[in-house]
């Protein structure tokens, strides 16, 4: 287990004998971002093993057997995703790393890129070999400038030592990485919008099908994976699928980077085996809470919030168990909401985020989220709510759900519908009295 404070150099490590540190083993260690340090600790040996001792299909099969599922939010099996690529036919192919980490509550990938960038580059090269891609695109969030600089330096180091470029380890396999900074748009976390942005087009999502494996970057076969997913590949190839699959639960294998924010004693990033409970994360490792808490968001801002009850706290943090509670694992970004924070205002903060980040391409999101939903919450937080407003919001949400061009609108509806379902009394109080049930701040007076 490793915890990381959300400050560039205020990174602290705390160990717990119950849990093995894998992805974050070198995070926070001075000099860990350099190639010399990485090679001293076994770096690029997994790539060498894959290139000199395994066929591409064997690498894919090993990742399939490991049970690794995408760590970017969707949780789709990584090896299966790789197998969607068409047979090699001479066309250029791409492996794209989605490092546009912009989900509120998510900050795990940042520290891999800042403190262990070669781990990510090695994972990209292994993935490229598995799918027959000689080009990698690393699309990084524009605001992550320190991570961008570290990756730029790491790519230069790897090229200088022949670890990127032509004929890696004498295998005949060529692979190089293009590093591309985004410009601050959350929508670029959607894989097809990301590809459009990389190509110099407006960052609007594309219609699927065709899927990226058939027509991705520049219309060529492309696979897109998350930072944490690609970093995990290094250790699967190095230590084997059985080792990875031995950690976690039946449907969720390996370790996972969980982020804890809000009124926790020790907020940060914790690497735990999949299936550890919210209670273990928040109380055993996070040190508990600094004030009473009434709700948590389990996987970043797009996942439905849950009440802070014993039943929820004892829920395993894996893909299946959280779905049974009515939410999703998402990115693993656990956000705690204090008891005296108005839930309507907390939800309004999220609605504003999604309304601002909507690309405006489709009517359900442009008019439904940036338009009607925004106006309804502005009305509520101004103390002007009326009888029937909640029913109107619920009706609007049901008519938006599943009808937008990409998942952004549905991401906004998660916290909206769940906050009404679990904390309807706060909404009704605000409508009836024109002020929030909890007056932690004077926000409502100035809304």
From TrEMBL:
Residues 344-390 form the NADH-ubiquinone oxidoreductase 51kDa subunit iron-sulphur binding domain. It catalyses: a quinone + NADH + 5 H(+)(in) = a quinol + NAD(+) + 4 H(+)(out). Its cofactor is FMN; [4Fe-4S] cluster. GO terms for molecular function: 4 iron, 4 sulfur cluster binding; FMN binding; metal ion binding; NAD binding; NADH dehydrogenase (ubiquinone) activity; oxidoreductase activity; quinone binding. Keywords: 4Fe-4S, Flavoprotein, FMN, Iron, Iron-sulfur, Metal-binding, NAD, Oxidoreductase, Quinone, Translocase. Signal peptide: none annotated. It comes from the Bacteria. Its EC number is 7.1.1.-. Pfam families: Complex1_51K, NADH_4Fe-4S. Gene3D superfamilies: 3.10.20.600, 6.10.250.1450, NADH-ubiquinone oxidoreductase 51kDa subunit (3.40.50.11540), NADH-ubiquinone oxidoreductase 51kDa subunit, iron-sulphur binding domain (1.20.1440.230). NDH-1 shuttles electrons from NADH, via FMN and iron-sulfur (Fe-S) centers, to quinones in the respiratory chain. PANTHER family: NADH-QUINONE OXIDOREDUCTASE SUBUNIT F. Belongs to the complex I 51 kDa subunit family. This is NADH-quinone oxidoreductase subunit F. The lineage of its organism: Bacteria, Thermotogati, Deinococcota, Deinococci, Trueperales.
């Amino acid at each position: 287990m490793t915890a990381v404070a959300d400050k560039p150099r205020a990174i602290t490590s705390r160990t717990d004998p119950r849990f093995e540190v894998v992805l974050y083993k070198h995070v926070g260690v001075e000099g860990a971002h350099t190639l010399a340090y990485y090679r001293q600790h076994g770096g690029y040996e997994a790539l060498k093993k894959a290139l000199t001792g395994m066929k591409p299909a064997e690498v894919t099969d090993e990742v399939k057997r490991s049970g690794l599922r995408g760590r970017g939010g969707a949780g789709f099996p990584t090896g299966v995703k790789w197998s969607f690529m068409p047979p090699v036919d001479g066309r250029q192919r791409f492996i794209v790393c989605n490092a546009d980490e912009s989900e509120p509550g998510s900050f795990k990938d940042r520290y891999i890129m800042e403190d262990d960038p070669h781990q990510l580059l090695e994972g990209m090269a292994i993935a490229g070999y598995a799918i027959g891609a000689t080009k990698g695109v690393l699309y990084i969030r524009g605001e992550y400038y320190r991570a961008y600089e570290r990756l730029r330096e790491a790519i230069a180091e790897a090229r200088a030592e022949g670890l990127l470029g032509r004929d890696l380890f004498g295998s005949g396999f060529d692979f190089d990485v293009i590093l591309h900074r985004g410009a601050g748009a959350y929508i670029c976390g959607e894989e097809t919008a990301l590809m459009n942005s990389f190509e110099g087009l407006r960052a609007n999502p594309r219609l699927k099908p065709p899927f990226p494996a058939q027509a991705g970057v520049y219309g060529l076969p492309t696979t897109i994976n998350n930072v944490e997913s690609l970093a995990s590949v290094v250790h699967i190839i190095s230590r084997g699928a059985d080792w990875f699959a031995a950690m976690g639960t039946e449907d969720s294998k390996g370790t996972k980077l969980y982020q804890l924010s809000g009124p926790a004693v020790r907020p940060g990033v914790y690497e735990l085996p999949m299936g550890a409970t919210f209670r273990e994360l928040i109380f055993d490792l996070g040190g508990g809470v600094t004030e009473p808490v009434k709700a948590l968001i389990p996987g970043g801002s797009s996942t439905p919030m849950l009440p802070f009850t014993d039943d929820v706290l004892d829920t395993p943090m894996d893909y299946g168990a959280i779905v049974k509670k009515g939410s999703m694992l998402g990115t693993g970004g656990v956000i705690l909401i204090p008891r005296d924070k108005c839930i309507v205002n907390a939800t309004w903060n999220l609605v504003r985020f999604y309304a601002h980040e909507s690309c405006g391409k489709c009517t359900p999101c442009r008019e439904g989220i940036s338009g009607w939903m925004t106006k309804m919450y502005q009305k509520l937080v101004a103390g002007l709510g009326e009888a029937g407003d909640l029913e109107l919001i619920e009706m609007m949400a049901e008519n938006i759900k599943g009808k937008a061009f990409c998942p952004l609108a549905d991401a906004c509806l998660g916290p909206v519908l769940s906050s009404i379902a679990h904390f309807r009394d706060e909404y009704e109080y605000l409508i009836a009295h024109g002020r929030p049930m909890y007056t932690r701040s004077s926000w409502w007076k100035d809304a």
